[in-house]
Design goal:
Length: 478
């Protein structure tokens, strides 16, 4: 990974290269980079841990994510790649919103950048927590040393190589993640006596674990709980680090192939991640509690394989952590550099100055993420869930409508981002009854409603003009 970072550094000549790789990624790299940067360490730690604790209830999250992946590629990818070029060759999501709605006040761009920085601090810290747990479990390294070591590895190649390094490393990391998740249940299930023996061992522990419609207390899961779990799929439409891959692909003509690769990879890894949790219930003699449930993959690998094979499987966890954390650091650095530093402080900054500003931003954001990750009791899934909801609600409705609705204007866009983001922040603090629903659901709904209402109330023809993209470019956005 470090060597790939060096090669990417040699090819990074300007800010466009550092942020989007010069928009020259192929279908395989785009698909694997979008998928690997999406899933992060929670795919090998958080989701198996949830399946270990809750059984097939975790399948609702997996189903929601799979559906969200497909529709994100189907509805957003081609249009965003196409429109981001037409809208002033926008490099970042805040810049796209500003150019799309002709916002000369820069308020839309600033607010978008602030929300990106806010939620990515929590998201990045989840990756660092995962790295700390990995090094702590494998090498018995004290947690605080472990989380610092993990952060250092990620920062080094992201600092130098930028987007190209992040994307190329994601390709290899994604393949390693899929291989590791596939091999664990393939080896463990025969050891438990096949599928029948595996399900019998889970049923002996708690029959409710094999019923996706009831919880571990043998109570009906309820409609709100199922909606909350499946609503993870809504988050895809607003994740800046995934959307950046759509903007970076060479051409919209490569998107169908990339979509098939991405959906296949996500299907395999999500199914296997849930299976790892179920297998762990029957295979591990010592029950896991609390935050330790997220170590089920690590303990299974240690129990199943020769140390050499186990080392490769455990490296997949580091690959998952790195593939997401580096993307988040880079998008956050781009928000600081391109959306705040250049427009407000140094409009005449040279390309080299902007690249180095982005590198310094990577260091600063990583240090803040490290502070948030300092508590070893933080659960990875909880950190990811909060940030995922924040991005999905703040940017998802805004982006979808900006690509499809001609009457949307900058006032509606601004309202959607603020209402969606703040709803997640406020809803997270409430509990009981309807407030127990995953915060992305009300955030997404309120954001969508505010965009439509405010855009219609402030509608004037000159403020609601959508560029006629098909006439400007010969490529079809799909």
């Amino acid at each position: 990974m470090m060597f790939i970072g060096y090669l990417a550094w040699r090819r990074t000549k300007n800010l466009s290269d550092y942020i989007l790789g010069g928009r020259r990624l192929g279908s395989w790299v785009t698909a694997m980079s979008a998928s690997a940067s999406d899933m992060s360490g929670w795919l090998l730690l958080g989701l198996p841990g949830y399946a270990y604790a809750a059984g097939l209830e975790a399948g609702w999250i997996a189903l929601g994510l799979l559906v969200g992946t497909y529709f994100n590629w189907r509805l957003v990818a081609a249009r965003l790649r196409h429109y981001s070029v037409i809208a002033g060759d926008s490099q970042t999501l805040p810049e796209f919103f500003e150019n799309r709605f002709h916002d000369e006040t820069r308020l839309l761009r600033t607010v978008s950048a602030i929300f990106i920085l806010l939620f990515f601090l929590f998201y990045t810290s989840s990756g660092l927590v995962a790295g700390g747990k990995l090094f702590n479990a494998v090498f018995d390294l004290p947690y605080h040393w472990a989380v610092t070591a993990g952060a250092l590895v990620i920062v080094i190649y992201t600092f130098f190589g930028g987007f190209l390094a992040v994307s190329w490393t994601d390709l290899f990391q994604g393949l390693l993640m899929a291989l590791a998740l596939l091999i664990v249940p393939l080896i463990a299930i025969p050891g438990l006596g096949g599928w029948g023996g595996t399900f019998s061992s889970v049923s002996e522990t708690n029959p409710a674990l094999l019923n996706a419609l009831i919880n571990v207390k043998n109570e009906p899961l309820g409609l709100l709980a199922i909606i909350s779990l499946m609503a993870w799929g809504l988050g895809y439409f607003g994740q800046p680090h995934i959307l950046a891959r759509f903007k970076a692909i060479r051409s919209v003509t490569e998107i169908p192939a990339a979509r098939r690769i991405a959906v296949s990879w996500v299907s395999i890894t999500l199914i296997c991640a849930v299976l790892v949790g179920l297998v762990g219930i029957g295979y591990l003699e010592q029950p896991l509690q609390g935050a330790d449930t997220e170590k089920v993959f690590i303990l299974l690998v240690d129990a199943l394989f020769h140390p050499v094979v186990a080392g490769l499987c455990l490296a997949a966890i580091l690959a998952a952590i790195m593939s997401t954390a580096d993307s988040q650091l880079l998008v956050s650095a781009a928000a600081l550099t391109s959306d705040l530093y250049k427009p407000f402080f140094r409009r005449a900054a040279s390309e080299q100055e902007l690249i180095w500003t982005g590198r310094v931003a990577v260091l600063v954001i990583a240090m803040i993420g490290l502070v948030l990750a300092w508590d070893p009791e933080r659960k990875i899934l909880d950190l990811v869930a909060y940030a995922w909801a924040g991005f999905g609600a703040a940017f998802g409705p805004t982006l979808i409508l900006s690509l499809y609705w001609r009457r949307m204007n900058r006032y509606g866009a601004l309202a959607g981002i603020i209402v969606g983001g703040l709803t997640v922040v406020i809803w997270k603090q409430l509990s009981g009854g309807l407030f127990d629903i995953y915060e992305i659901v009300p955030g997404f709904i309120f954001s969508m409603l505010s965009i439509v209402v405010i855009s219609l109330l402030t509608h004037t023809p000159e403020k609601a003009v959508l560029l006629d993209f098909d006439k400007v470019s010969g490529e079809s956005p799909g």
